[in-house]
């Protein structure tokens, strides 16, 4: 009978459990509930449930294909709840957290504040209960989690947990997970020791292409339109000790790909970003959860960036920024931040955010073996930049190399060398005379006024003084470029084109803290194969006022290509010519003291613009082509000295006027001086017939002397006329006017008596009653000079005889005045 009772009891238990469960489910929010089978064995400690289907009042549906649990009943005697096996298959469960947590359609009551249970002395001495599980298996399970602004779906293809026992805390449990999170493949393999005195977790986690778009609402309002993918392939190790604190380490890869979104502050449109960490991270926290140490070793790669900053009108792109090295941070130390490694950038580009017009680009950047100790000391042995361009084709730089760079306290920067190679600049002037790159600049949004753009001029901290300027020291600064400058000027006819090759521009001992120091300067350039330009000396480029002491040489410059500019400046076109100049420049605090020695060869000018010629002549006072012709030697060479003096700070004088006046004065003075030189030893009394503001039209030479009564010049005069003839042969544009005279003594038979003739009160001798003989004598003297010069090869048409003159003066001698 008892056996029948027991049989009936054990038979009724599963049925009772099933019906009680269904009744409870329907009384707690389930519209529909079905359980296909329940199997309970109290002696064996097993429970199995199959075919659970639930439909809640809020529309939620849940299902469970199979659930089974097997308890080790004998362990209950030792206060151990030991689950030998727990198996879940085909679970489809949803959970939602709004105001309260709802799981599978069941709304859980809000928890009241927990109160510590009252433990009596006797209870505290009792042996505690333990719990453990030998094996947990979950398969073909789908869990949906919904919290405000975020939905997550976890699919568990296979989950296993083994050997998790609280009574054996040192034993590590094993957790293996294979599944997906929001359809992204997920693999987890961990060794756990949650009950140990030093809690530990270690193992590997793999999550592939996890979509970030579901987190859009979470990221708002700071980030909108979030998108991208997260991939994790790493090993982690976590240890927490009550006395020593917590350590966390990571080894492996973390990456973000195709990340995009809009950062509302500062208003950046992130179009694409790839970020990958490959390496090790180690973090230590004290018992109060405060970080005490951080160390990293590995590579952080920003493989791609495409971001727009509309407020600044900029769009930034690159194909790789990589940090490869180690980093450590110890907050307790003053200089606890330290780093060492390499930094590289590949294919960086800045363009206009609206038009995408290229502003600047960089092919490659590499900083080798960076060493940093805090922000106080940063050392970089070598920095290399390749393929730099700005507003192409305006400017490009092949390479920049910086050696032995050091930055101290973010205020003092020094470097051994700064070498800039393969510099190329292209300048084009349009027909209106405007540089075309200004048109490009004006088309850029970045250069337009924008009220939303932050101001870069106000760098003063609130309530503080402006930051001190960065102190810079560079031992050697050098620039070179075979295609340094290509100039095209379409504002002149014909179009002007010129290329400049910069062989070397070198500046030594740069120090911004010593602006009054003289810096050695060397410059070597070529305008073509034979046209050269060089400068040596010292400058003070950092001084408040310009100061320099330089020697410059420009050699073999072809002038014909500069003809359009000569026409604009002087009113003349240059048919042929070249020049070489040697200059000494002394500039002291803006005061110019410059000496130029110019040599012009085969210079031929043609008048082109009369108005400009007239303006230049106001300063020159002599026709430019005549003045230059005077200066030419037998080889067609002109040597000219042009000193330039003035103060560039004088508001009434500009540098152009200083140079123009100095040039005009030099040409005039040199022309007259050169004539005097050609007439030596007879040119000592050379004078110009000039009045203020008038053009020079005559040059007075030394007079030709005569013996009394003679019609032919004296011996010295004859030699002098040969020199004049030689000058006129060299300068065929010159004409000669002869102005001869006669004096009373010329026809007096007794000169001694003449000397005793009483003079008038004015000091002049009394004039003879008949001047005809004297006038004839003067005319004969002039004709004789014309005849002598004609015999020397001077065309008679170039020799003009002026009206003869008779002078009654004791101081006058018989002579002929010559005027060119």
Topology:
Blueprint: H1 2-27, E1 30-41, E2 46-56, E3 61-71, E4 80-89, E5 92-97, E6 101-103, E7 106-107, H2 121-124, E8 130-147, E9 150-165, E10 173-181, E11 184-193, E12 199-211, H3 216-219, E13 223-241, E14 245-263, E15 268-285, E16 291-309, E17 314-318, E18 321-329, E19 337-352, E20 358-373, E21 377-390, E22 395-408, E23 412-429, H4 436-442, E24 471-489, E25 496-511, E26 519-526, E27 532-539, E28 548-558, H5 563-570, E29 572-588, E30 591-607, H6 610-620, H7 624-631, E31 637-647, H8 655-678, E32 687-689, E33 698-700, E34 704-705, H9 715-730, E35 736-742, H10 751-756, H11 772-791, E36 799-801, E37 805-806, E38 815-819
Helix pairs in contact: 5-6, 6-8, 7-8
Structure explained in plain terms:
- The chain has 820 residues and is of the alpha+beta class.
- Among the domains are: 473-680, no CATH class; 698-819, OmpA-like domain (60s Ribosomal Protein L30, Chain: A, 2-Layer Sandwich).
- The protein is 16% helix and 51% strand.
- It is built from eleven helices and 38 strands.
- The strands form three sheets. It has a 31-stranded mixed β-sheet that branches. Strands 34, 35, 36, 37 and 38 form a five-stranded mixed β-sheet that branches. It has a two-stranded antiparallel ribbon with strand order 32-33.
- α5 (563-570) packs across α6 (610-620), α6 crosses α8 and α7 crosses α8.
- It starts with a helix and ends with a strand.
- The model is unreliable at 449-459, 684-695 and 751-763 (pLDDT under 50).
- This is OmpA family protein.
- InterPro entries: DUF748.
- Residues 747-768 are annotated as: Disordered.
- Pfam families: DUF748.
- Residues 747-758 have a biased composition (Acidic residues).
């Amino acid at each position: 009978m008892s056996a029948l009772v027991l049989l009936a009891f054990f038979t009724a238990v599963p049925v009772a459990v099933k019906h009680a469960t269904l009744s409870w489910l329907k009384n707690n929010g389930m519209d529909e509930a079905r359980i296909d089978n329940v199997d309970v064995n109290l002696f064996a400690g097993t429970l199995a449930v199959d075919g659970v289907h639930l439909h809640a009042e809020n529309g939620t549906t849940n299902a469970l294909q199979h659930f089974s649990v097997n308890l080790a009943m004998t362990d209950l005697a030792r206060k151990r709840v030991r689950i030998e096996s727990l198996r879940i298959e085909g679970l489809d469960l949803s959970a939602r957290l709004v105001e309260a947590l709802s799981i599978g359609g069941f709304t859980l009551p809000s928890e009241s504040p927990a109160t510590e249970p009252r433990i009596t002395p006797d209870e505290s001495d009792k042996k505690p209960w333990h719990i453990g599980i030998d094996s947990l298996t979950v398969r073909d399970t789908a869990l949906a989690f919904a919290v405000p602004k975020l939905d997550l779906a976890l699919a568990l293809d296979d989950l296993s947990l083994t050997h998790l026992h609280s009574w054996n805390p040192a034993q590590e449990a094993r957790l293996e997970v294979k599944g997906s999170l929001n359809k992204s493949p997920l693999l987890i393999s961990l060794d756990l020791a949650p009950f140990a005195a030093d809690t530990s977790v270690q193992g590997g986690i793999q999550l592939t292409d996890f979509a970030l778009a579901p987190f859009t609402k979470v990221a708002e309002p700071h980030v909108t339109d979030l998108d991208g993918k997260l991939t994790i392939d790493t090993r982690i190790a976590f240890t927490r000790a009550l006395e020593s604190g917590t350590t966390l380490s990571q080894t492996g890869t973390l990456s973000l790909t195709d990340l995009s979104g809009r950062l509302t502050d500062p208003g950046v449109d992130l179009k694409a970003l790839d970020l990958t960490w490959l390496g090790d991270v180690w973090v230590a926290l004290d018992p109060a959860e405060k970080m005490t140490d951080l160390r990293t070793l590995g590579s952080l790669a920003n493989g791609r960036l495409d971001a727009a900053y509309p407020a600044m009108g900029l769009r930034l792109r690159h194909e790789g920024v990589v940090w490869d090295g180690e980093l450590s941070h110890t907050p307790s130390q003053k200089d606890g931040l330290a780093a060492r490694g390499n930094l590289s950038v590949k294919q960086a580009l800045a363009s206009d955010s609206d038009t995408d017009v290229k502003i600047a680009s960089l092919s490659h950047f590499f900083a080798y073996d960076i060493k940093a100790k805090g922000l106080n000391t940063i050392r970089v042995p070598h920095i290399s930049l390749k393929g730099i361009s700005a507003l192409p084709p305006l400017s490009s730089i092949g390479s920049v190399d910086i050696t032995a760079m050091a930055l101290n306290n973010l205020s003092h920067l020094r470097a051994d060398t700064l070498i800039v190679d393969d510099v190329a600049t292209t300048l084009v002037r349009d027909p209106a005379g405007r540089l075309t790159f200004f048109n490009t600049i004006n088309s850029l949004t970045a250069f337009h006024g924008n009220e939303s753009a932050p101001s870069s001029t106000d760098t003063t901290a609130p309530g503080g003084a402006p930051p001190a300027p960065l102190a810079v020291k560079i031992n050697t600064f050098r620039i070179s470029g075979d295609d340094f400058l290509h100039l095209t000027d379409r504002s002149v006819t014909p179009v002007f084109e010129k290329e400049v090759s910069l062989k070397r521009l070198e500046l030594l001992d740069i120090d911004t803290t010593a602006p009054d120091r003289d810096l050695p300067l060397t410059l070597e350039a070529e305008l073509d194969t034979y046209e050269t330009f060089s400068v040596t000396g010292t400058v003070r480029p950092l001084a408040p006022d310009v100061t320099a002491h330089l020697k410059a040489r420009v050699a073999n410059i072809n002038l014909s290509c500069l003809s359009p500019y000569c026409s604009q400046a002087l009113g003349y076109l240059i048919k042929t010519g070249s020049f070489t100049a040697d200059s000494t420049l002394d500039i002291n605090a803006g005061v110019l003291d410059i000496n130029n020695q110019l040599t012009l060869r085969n210079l031929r000018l043609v008048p082109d613009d009369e108005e400009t010629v007239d303006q230049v002549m106001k300063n020159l006072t002599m026709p430019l082509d005549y003045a230059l012709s005077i200066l030419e030697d037998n080889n067609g060479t002109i040597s000219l000295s042009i000193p330039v003096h003035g103060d560039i700070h004088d508001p009434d004088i500009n540098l152009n006027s200083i140079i123009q006046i100095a040039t005009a004065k030099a040409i005039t003075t040199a022309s007259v001086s050169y004539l005097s030189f050609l007439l030596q030893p007879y040119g000592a009394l050379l004078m110009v017939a000039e009045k203020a503001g008038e053009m020079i039209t005559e040059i007075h030479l030394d007079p030709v002397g005569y013996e009394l009564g003679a019609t032919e010049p004296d011996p010295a005069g004859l030699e002098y006329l040969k020199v004049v003839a030689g000058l006129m042969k060299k300068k065929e544009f010159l004409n000669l006017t002869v102005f001869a005279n006669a004096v009373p003594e010329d026809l007096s038979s007794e000169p001694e008596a003449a000397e005793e003739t009483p003079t008038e009160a004015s000091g002049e001798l009394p004039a003879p009653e008949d001047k005809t003989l004297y006038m004839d004598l003067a005319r004969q003297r002039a004709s004789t000079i014309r005849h002598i010069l004609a015999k020397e090869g001077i065309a008679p048409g170039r020799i003009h005889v002026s009206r003869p003159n008779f002078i009654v003066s004791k101081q006058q001698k018989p002579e002929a005045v010559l005027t060119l």
